[in-house]
Write a structure and sequence with these properties.
Layout lengths: L1 H94 L28 H12 L3
Length: 138
């Protein structure tokens, strides 16, 4: 009977150690769950803050692009107006045969090409063609 009691005592001791180990594991898991919750909340807060920053930066960038587009379009319209004015002045000089620019007045008509207008498209090739056309005047 002593052998049986010693075996029961040994099993009780093993059971006690197992329960202690299991209790430690449960405590660690609870700590991990708390840490996981804290990390998740922190990550969500960081993502929200990052998202707000990105939205603000994108809005500012969009506004800057629109302002630059408006500026460039206005410059193109100013250049177009100046070219029309020069074309009108040249036509008035050309039509007035009494104007003498020096020794000989030529009756040959000088052809001034009409500048193509910028129609607002965001096509790089169209802008390049417009700039090339402007370069032909200078």
């Amino acid at each position: 009977m002593d052998a049986l009691e010693s075996r029961v005592d040994a099993h009780n001791e093993i059971l006690s150690k197992t329960q202690a180990t299991l209790s430690t594991v449960v405590d660690r898991l609870n700590g991990l769950e708390t840490d996981y919750t804290t990390i998740t909340q922190t990550n969500k807060a960081m993502l929200r803050e990052f998202q707000m920053g990105i939205k603000e930066d994108l809005y500012l960038l969009t506004q800057e692009v629109l302002n630059n587009r408006t500026f460039v379009e206005q410059k193109f319209w100013n250049i177009q107006a100046e070219m029309d004015e020069v074309r009108t002045e040249w036509a008035s000089y050309h039509n007035n045969r009494t104007v003498n620019f020096g020794a000989i007045t030529s009756t040959n008509a000088i052809q001034i090409p009409k500048l193509s207008t910028f129609n607002g498209n965001r096509d790089a090739m169209e802008v390049e063609n417009l700039i090339f056309g402007l370069e032909q005047y200078f």
